[in-house]
Amino acid sequence: MKTQKPRRYGMVIDLDRCTGCGACMTACAAENNVAPGHAKATPRTGLTPMLVQRVSNGGAGADRREVFIPVTCMHCEHETPCVTVCPQQAVELDKATGIVNQMPQRCLGCRYCMTACAYHARYFNWWDPEWPVGMERTLNPGVAVRMRGVVEKCNFCHGRLHEAEDKAAAAGKAEIDPADYRPACVEACATQAIVFGDLNDPASDVRKASRHEDSFRLLARLGTEPKVYYRSKQEWVRGLAERGQQEVRRG
Amino acid sequence: MIRGLCFFLIGVAAIQVAGWVGLPKALYVTKAQPFEYRHKTHAEKSGSAECDGCHTLGADGVFAGLPKTESCAACHTEPQGKSAAEATLVSSYVKTEKETPWLVYARQPANVRFSHAIHTKRAKLACERCHGKHGESDTLRPYQENRISGYSRDIWGRSISRWKRVANEGMKMDDCEGCHKQQGFDTGCLSCHR
Amino acid sequence: MKPTRRDVLALGGGAVASVFFTPIPWKLLDDASIWTQNWSWIPQPVKGPVEWKESACALCPASCGLRVKMAGGYAVGLSGKDGALCALGYGAHQMNWHPQRLTVVRHNGQPSTWAAAEAAFQKACAEGPVAIVDGRPGRGASQVYRQFAEKTPGALYAVIRTPEEEALRPVAAIAGVPVERLGYDLENTKLVLSLSAPLLEGWGGPQRVQRLWPAMQIIQAEAELSRTGTCAARRVQIKPGSEAMLAMALAHALLDEKLATGPRPAMSLAEAAALAGVELDEVKGLARTLAAQRPSVVISARPEPAVAALNVLLGAVGAEGGIVARNGAPAPAKSMDELPGTLRAALLDSTVPWDRRPAGAQEVFRFAAWRGGDEQGWMLPAPGFLEEATDNPATGARAEALLKPPAGVKTTVAFLGGELPAAQPVESAIVPLTCKLAAWPSAAPNGQDGRTAAWTAAWTPAVLAPLATKLHQESKLMPAGGGRRQA
Fold this sequence. Notes:
The complex is a heterotrimer of chains A (about 250), B (about 190) and C (about 475).
Chain A: E1 9-14, H1 23-31, E2 51-56, E3 66-71, H2 81-85, E4 91-93, E5 100-102, H3 112-116, E6 123-124, E7 151-152, H4 158-170, H5 184-188, E8 194-198, H6 205-210, E9 215-216, E10 228-231, H7 235-239, H8 245-250
Parallel strand pairs in A: 1-10
Antiparallel strand pairs in A: 1-8, 2-3, 4-5, 6-7, 9-10
Chain B: H1 2-27, E1 28-31, H2 39-46, H3 69-73, H4 84-94, H5 116-122, H6 128-131, E2 143-146, H7 153-156, H8 173-183, H9 189-192
Antiparallel strand pairs in B: 1-2
Chain C: H1 5-19, H2 24-37, E1 50-56, E2 65-71, E3 74-80, E4 106-107, E5 110-111, H3 114-127, E6 130-134, H4 140-151, E7 156-159, H5 163-175, E8 182-184, E9 191-195, H6 208-212, E10 217-222, H7 227-231, E11 234-237, H8 243-256, H9 269-276, H10 280-292, E12 296-300, H11 305-314, E13 323-326, E14 334-335, E15 343-348, E16 361-368, E17 378-381, E18 390-391, E19 398-399, H12 412-415, E20 430-431, H13 451-459, H14 469-474
Parallel strand pairs in C: 6-7, 6-15, 7-14, 9-10, 9-12, 10-11, 15-16, 16-17
Antiparallel strand pairs in C: 1-2, 2-3, 4-5, 4-17, 8-13, 13-20, 18-19
Helix pairs in contact in C: 5-11, 8-9, 8-10, 8-11
């Protein structure tokens, strides 16, 4: 009996194809049992493991250009900042899949990882998750609900990876079918802007797309080797990659 | 001095008794199952002793767990005898189409992911490896619930010291990890948590 | 022997020293940590094996195919059957438990009963003309409404047209076919010139254009940058409300360049281009692109006679990849706006958007699964998402209900005393359509008359946003409102 060889899951998001419809965000929230925003939640204190940001070139009228940037956990590979700083070993870079996974039940809630993350991709549960009466019946059984006081983030829909593994095991296979494992945001994208797969697999679309000349990574200069790539044919969009969030907001 | 030592030893003895004998008694509460169920009788009547005859594993790897009331209703539309269990099954569950709230000996916390497909199909583990000879039992053994955590005593194991456990005793993370390490399998958090 | 203080201390010392050799601290620590990881007040998913079922979404006329993840009799996840769903659709299964869910009859904002509503409706039917308004014609339920209207004296059947259908009305007038039979053959279109139409924001069914784009080229002419404008291959800046002027300028340019033949608009090229705020060269370039990239089509957000005429000149009407006619469409019906000025009552199906009601209706009986709108008249609780059979008007396919509706809910069909007919597949095919433009339409262009606001209101979806979509709204992704996050 053998187990599957190590993979490096990653994604390439084509920004020229993103229409900013937000389906990825809703699909992500529904898949991962993210509770409705608390009445007092702000964009900083709410939970958006997948967040589509709208960024403009600062122009006006006919010169104005905008782009939508879906931001999620980048699953950094080199000295992953959140893993390095966690005093609890609640985050780890999984050797088998390359996914940076967060174990909310082990989390102390110190939020050191949130400070360390350059992408603001981590969120703290400021409130207990609450659904309107009865709506807890729509919770996805494949993902555990988190509690107040812990940090959470994108785990590349690991519940779906589990389902794919179960299916492969039931069929007596050691390898999962790549078509069975697609995170919710990837599946939800009507324009197929997000390509997901194993970056180790030379035949995968994601590997080819990640090596395309138009592809880039956000804040690559930090050297954390993110596994989420972006691509755009537009020069000014590629120019956003190395700018901090504050700079981008100021235009 | 001797007298002081005596009292010291009495203190030691008292707490040892309290810890090893009193604690398990105080910590666990025995709960009754909704009604009596005989695995043995059902296996004989159905002519199949295979666990997956009733606890099915789908082609997509989804483990069905305990059979639903509608499966019971296939035979038990009316009481099949005069036992109290039959009466309870038919009146409280079959007639009302409610699911039986069984107390599951092996129930794990919500953040634990255990794949029956991987363990039985790929690793070829027998059901008895974890569940013991439950399938041949003629009665449902007492379900002991931990007063603090709310989970079954089976998770920790019969023995409070966890010393010299038999193979199917104990289903804590240590036990999973022990076997995974021994067999050289992945021990990433993600493999068993969700 | 009397114990002394020293004895008690020795006893305690013995107990403390030996407690670490018992399971007491270790076991209690372990249990306590498991307890803190599983607070009893944190909601837990339903137990039960997961199975996937197929259904269709009833939120909008697009009727997207669904794969529904079911556990313990509840829907716990949604996925598109052929392609992705929209942002609203992915959280739709949560909507049945929305706090605004309607489960009791309400009259003018006060709780009431079905018996009272039925009595009031019968009284209204006896007294004078009532209208049954259908938000989505062509379903099994629509047949029941039509039959009710036929056998009840004075009753009328009317439908709500989508903004896309409304925009095709001028084409229908020129071609002489009912608007119900017209549609855009976008699947074969190479280039779309959109005049402020929100193509990528849900136009023509949430994901239809998104699936076709970017293989299909979009040129967006608009006054204010929209999401479609952001994504379009090319964006043309025009003055607000000047879509018709640009269409007329383009017609002149097509005729000047000998790319089409036909009548000319009365307004001159220079005047139209100036009103639209577009340079003459750009207009000519656009006209050449439209002609070269055939099959191309011009789509406007609002009904514009000038745009219809431009499409005819371009040869897009009746051509593959343009505006085509089909058979198998629902029988022509009156639009709600064409109903008489005074009506005793109107019964609105749950597919009718909240902000729509016949202007002349004295009493309104509105079926809805969620509370909303002005709550004037009767609010009748209807089945929610996946709680009733869903018909696809285009194919006639029916998806049966997957979930059990809550008590106190009734379908419009049951309220009218009818029975849902068996599903009948619709034989739908594109039929030839020939269309000639005799004269440039004389109707006044739509621009700059304040109708933009009315049109936006008509676009509001018929349903409440699910709570998960709150995130989506909070991120300010929806059009208008700047789009920047608050710092």
